[in-house]
Design brief:
By secondary structure, this protein is an all-alpha fold. It contains 2 helices and no strands. The chain has a domain of about 45 residues. α1 crosses α2.
Length: about 80
């Protein structure tokens, strides 16, 4: 079963924001706490907060970033 293509941009933002916030919160949590036993639990808590902010931010900011990229790059096929 596959999703309709119209959900592609939202799914892309969901996955991208999830993975990026996972990596960044993991690095930040490790830097803040060091390699301690409580680190994985703290990481998941930080990730949950980060993802709740990252997902809607990606959806709002992505169109602006696409316009900026289009303005500073040559169109395909040139």
């Amino acid at each position: 079963m596959r999703l309709p293509a119209r959900y592609g941009p939202v799914l892309f933002g969901f996955l991208l924001s999830g993975l990026m916030s996972l990596v960044v919160s993991g690095i930040a949590t490790l830097k803040a706490l060091g390699p301690v036993r409580e680190m994985p639990g703290a990481w998941i808590g930080a990730w949950a907060i980060a993802w709740t902010i990252a997902f809607p931010t990606v959806l709002v900011v992505a169109p602006l970033v696409r316009r900026i990229v289009a303005a500073v790059t040559e169109p395909a096929g040139r």
